[in-house]
Amino acid sequence: MDLLPISTPHCRVERDGAVVIVTMDRPEAKNALSTDMLVGLADAWTYISAEPEVRVGILTGANGTFCAGADLKAMGSPSGDEQVRRRAAEIENYHWKGLLRDTASLPTKPIISAVEGYAVAGGTELLVGTDLRVVGESATLGLFEARRALFPMGGSAIRLPRQIPYAFAMDVLLTGRAITAAEALAMGLVNRVVPDGQALSSARELAAEVAACGPLAVQAILRTYRETLGMGEAEALEVSDAIGWPVIGSDDAKEGSRAFREKRPPVYRGK
């Protein structure tokens, strides 16, 4: 894999062909959020959206931990890295962009969480901002904010009840208790639970499945979901048609049909 220059001291961004792997890399603090990490995350999401050959991103944490949430001191202190200080000044709302909360700048391509160990508070909020979720069987999730008289500022009070049944969402949000991987799967909060240590490899397998699909189709599906939230069906179908018909008429769609007829893997070019 190639280490990209947008990496920061607390965020490693690597590319392996069509897949970008983003690693929260502050293991001495259980990968708690910092300015260095959030700037790296914000730049990683921008890179994934902008690079035409990138099809999917994976978000994971170093040393068997996903993310233990916010480190308010580290998030409020200037970085010791000159590149990070410059980017923090240049990126508007880099905190929200890094946390996948800024809806106007969400990645246009799917992001997969690969979770081991703790993914609590801000860690669970990051997971809720991703599109597909793979979790090690001993992982611990949870939104602990209410227990500490705080509020989940990453957007989970809005997003979680839209993603899983209301009663489950309120259980997570209002009790502030820890959630096991098995519970998260039963709630529909995650896609797969795998043996410990295999979350990243399983996420890479899932990423390969996504990357094998037509990129225009994948991006259009994500865009349609996001742009039709809160709409009635008739209005939403109009938006869906406007997004979907150009995909149906694309060169990739022709290639998909041609490859099916010729019984070979398709070669999609995003056109």
Automatic annotation (TrEMBL):
Ranges of compositional bias, category Basic and acidic residues: 252-265
Region spans: Disordered: 252-271
Signal peptide segment: none
Pfam families: ECH_1
Record keywords, A-Z: Lipid metabolism, Lyase
Similarity-based family: Belongs to the enoyl-CoA hydratase/isomerase family.
This protein's name: Crotonase/enoyl-CoA hydratase family protein
